[in-house]
Specification:
With 155 residues, the protein is mostly helical. The chain has four helices and no strands. It has one domain (3-154). It starts with a helix and ends with a helix.
Length: 155
């Protein structure tokens, strides 16, 4: 094998690794976005039909707990398994949150369209929900991933 063949093989491997790495984080973002969507559309009707305020709170808390666990697992995956920096980890985790919020806004639009109420506010939700959820998610994920990185360095 010539030197050029070695270089070409190295480039093929590097391209494959880069592509598969991109696909892994993107798959994780999509998967977690779906988890957030499913938690939202599963628990909201249960909370809305609850017989008591205590049960309504319990169903909403269950959705929050599942979402928080998924968020923490995503941060751990990005940091530990993917070995991403705190910034990249926060970006990917917040993108998943934004995707889930966007999907929930779409679901809310579809549901509300039957009542045809406030079409402008429904359209605005498609932008506002992802932004309002992704910004704090980025901050929390960044702080969490930075703490994980510090803990790893000091261990």
């Amino acid at each position: 094998m010539t030197h050029d063949d070695h270089v070409a093989e190295h480039l093929r491997q590097a391209t494959h690794m880069t592509t598969s790495g991109r696909l892994r984080w993107l798959r994780a973002v999509i998967l977690l976005g779906v988890v957030y969507l499913v938690a939202g559309i599963t628990f909201a009707p249960l909370a809305n039909r609850a017989a008591s305020n205590q049960m309504r709170v319990a169903w909403r808390l269950a959705a929050w707990v599942i979402s928080a666990a998924a968020f923490a697992a995503h941060i751990a995956y990005e940091h530990v398994r993917q070995r991403n920096s705190p910034g990249t980890t926060a970006l990917h985790a917040s993108l998943a949150v934004a995707l889930g919020a966007f999907a929930l806004a779409v679901a809310a639009n579809v549901h509300a369209q039957a009542a045809s109420s406030h079409p402008h506010s429904r359209a605005l939700a498609l932008v506002i929900w992802p932004v309002v959820t992704a910004l704090p998610a980025f901050g929390v994920a960044l702080a969490s991933a930075a703490a994980l990185a510090r803990a790893r360095r000091s261990a």
